[in-house]
Predict the structure.
Amino acid sequence: MKTESVTRTPAVTPDPRRWIVLAILAGSLLLIAMDTTILNVAFPSLVADLQPGSVQQLWIIDAYALALSGLLVTAGALGDRWGRKRLLLIGFAVFAAASLAAAFATAAWQVVAARALLGVGGAAIMPSTLSLLRAVFTDARERALAYAIWAAVFGGGMALGPVVGGLLVERNGWQSAFLLNIPVALAVIGFGWWLLPESRGPARGRWDWLGVGQSVVGMLALAGGIKQLGKSGVGDPLPWLLLTLAAITLTVFVRRQLRIAHPLLQVRLFASRPFSIAASTLFLSMIAMGAVLFLTTQWFQYAQGYTPLEAGIRLLPAPLALVAASMVAPTLMHRFAIRHILGLALLLMAGALALPWIVDHTGTLGYPGVALSLAMLGTGAGVATTVASVTLMAATPTRDVGGAAAIEETCYELGAAMGVAILGSLAAALYRTNLPADVTAAARDSVGEAAHAATALTGPAGTALLDTAAKAFTAGMTPTFLIAATLPAAAAALAWTQIPKNLRPTENTH
């Protein structure tokens, strides 16, 4: 597949509803993106109320993103075949029902199940958003702007989740983080049924049930293996069994998709250098972004003593910078080489991640240093994810847009989940390493458990335990960010060396 050349589409009358469609789809995406991180701020309140164990805590955070990631490939293919509007509206009905179940949960396992069902609904929604945008925006420049807004809404939604969550949780409890979804979902169903156009892909052969099973099992085994490896360490055989299962299943899936006449996922898209580098950029960037939002939210609440709302407000530099940078990115792409814009944005992200470690080792890490880091991270992520999204979709033939959308959103969601699982587990291990030997087993489990134990104590003993845990968490968080900085730095090297010099953000429609 040759992707650097451009085949221009004939002039087509623009859909007069396209900007209304964009508004509906952006609202849809904002809800899905916020649900990836909104629980970060609500999490301490939920833990105090339901008392989940450490494993259950990780599953409450990760179940949504892992379920969504595992089903995106299937959902993208199903939307192409069955109708993207129909799948999106059904997804929102599932999303509303799962949110209601989570809000009234009385046990940790019920929250885990509801979060997984939210992921099922999200998987039905997300591929439809990009595919519908591709259908209604026929002008290349308008389409690039629509993609930029899509990337800004998704990235900004992830970063705004803790802010909105903090505002809701402080006033109404952790259940309100789920109740918020219901009126929004119902509004999207009503307006979407009325205003969204139906869109389908070209006719395909028989539905690939075997491919569905292989993709779901492979992705869930991959995510679960990495998550378990971070939790239990290299000496536990379970994560290695899961990773082996993932490697075997996904290898068989890819080989079969290359062989059959009507594949569930067009894996040959990865033969395009711009496509594969754009996907890698999104994945690596979201690993770093997911970890930062997760750990920084905990640092604000446990190490700095902020309320959920105060913690959410202090995260604002990231989403504000991300949204602003995303809006500027299309203009930059038409003025400068894509590889230069993408490479510099990724290096800015790497610098942002290294900054807290530098500040902590040259003085005392406080909010000014963290705020600057968040603003730099949001700026770099806004440009990088927008450029990568436009590049990925521009390198995709029209007939494969559903599969490309699923791949892109898998990179977003799986990357964020991997950031929490891998880097979150690394930060937890470093936290335990920095604790004194006489700290209780409960406090060693997590900084949240330490804060809970400190609250149960009275007088100086509780204050001393909380101070010790806060210092240990900071000492574990900053080197984790420094390690995370290698991810966007590696993506920058790929962009500079592998993306063609003359690549421009135009559509490939053959």
About this structure: Confidence is low (pLDDT under 50) at residues 1-10. The radius of gyration is 22 Å.
